[in-house]
Specification:
Layout: E1 14-16, E2 36-40, E3 48-50, H1 59-72, E4 79-81, H2 82-93, H3 99-106, E5 111-113, H4 114-126, E6 133-135, E7 138-142, H5 144-157
Parallel strand pairs: 1-7
Antiparallel strand pairs: 2-7, 3-6, 4-5
Length: about 160
């Protein structure tokens, strides 16, 4: 076989039923569409912040990050202000950064060196700074049929706890 078949990687906090996806499958498979993602916390007293292992950016991702920093530094001054840093962070994380995130990036400085800021943002993106994981909190990919079944079970229970 010319291309080795590899398993599809699934994050530890994402659960899928065997009805949706069998984790032992290898290679491309036709998967049903996910129509709902259920957040599931089996025991709220057991939730703990999890330390993520730092990931590395590929060379292509590093080049894209470098290009983004270069584009926002339109004057090529190699110095970025708070507004520029906020725009770069917004582009990288897909939501407006909090003031605390900008402070983490820049400290109290009005301007920051472009190259140092790029290294700092790369670390923030790969260390899990923007996505804190919690042990004990799971996300479950559901098909339409599974989602409808859970919805019905919740409504039948009324105000009673779902699990007793």
């Amino acid at each position: 076989h010319p291309n080795p078949i590899t398993k599809t990687p699934i994050p530890q906090d994402l659960l899928v039923s065997n009805n949706y996806f069998d984790k032992t499958w290898k290679g491309d498979r036709r998967l049903k569409n996910v129509v709902m993602v259920l957040e599931w916390i089996p025991d709220a007293t057991q939730i703990r912040i999890s330390n993520l292992t730092e990931h590395k950016l590929t060379e292509d991702q590093k080049n894209q990050l470098k290009k983004a920093f270069s584009l926002f530094d339109s004057k090529q001054s190699k110095s970025l202000d708070r507004k520029q840093i906020a725009k770069i962070m917004r582009a990288a994380i897909d939501y407006p950064p909090a003031e605390a995130d900008i402070r983490e990036m820049m400290g109290k400085e009005a301007h920051v060196n472009r190259d140092k800021a790029m290294v700092k943002l790369e670390h923030m993106l790969t260390s899990g700074y923007f996505r804190k994981l919690q042990k004990g909190r799971y996300f479950v990919a559901l098909t339409l049929a599974e989602a409808e079944t859970i919805r019905r079970a919740i409504h039948v229970r009324g105000n009673r706890p779902f699990f007793e």
